[in-house]
Amino acid sequence: GSLVLPEKFQHILRVMGTNIDGRVKIMFALTAIKGCGRRFANVVCKKAGVDLDKRAGELTEDEIDKVVTIMQNPRQYKIPDWFLNRQKDIKDGKFSQVLSNNLETKLREDLERLKKVRAHRGIRHYWGLRVRGQHTKTTGRKGRTVGVAKKK
What we know:
The chain is mostly helical. It has helices at about 25-30, 40-50, 60-70, 100-115, 120-125, and strands spanning about 10-15, 20. The N and C termini lie far apart (about 65 Å).
């Protein structure tokens, strides 16, 4: 990019409830939003027709709006289902990309559901143990209380 700042350069943008650093290239700036990784950001920028070499602060208002609309409904813009981070949602069976605060809510709801049906995974989450079948004999001892006190 050019070293000369354009007139309407924003150092910090507010997109989807997240502060985005305007000095970073747009694709990597978007990854500051929860639920948007590098690949998703890349695809969104390409679909929006935004120049990937631009810094985030150089985008015009309507470019930013375009990017946000594509992120919020990716399926309308021919982004394939396997790209999305919420596939066959358990409640409504929809495919979607959950972003920012919705991501945290969805995660919490999922864990609540697992705990409510007393699933093995839910119980492990509740106890704060490893969930995915890892061994726990020796690792992951941070935050647990140890039974035997050392003799003086």
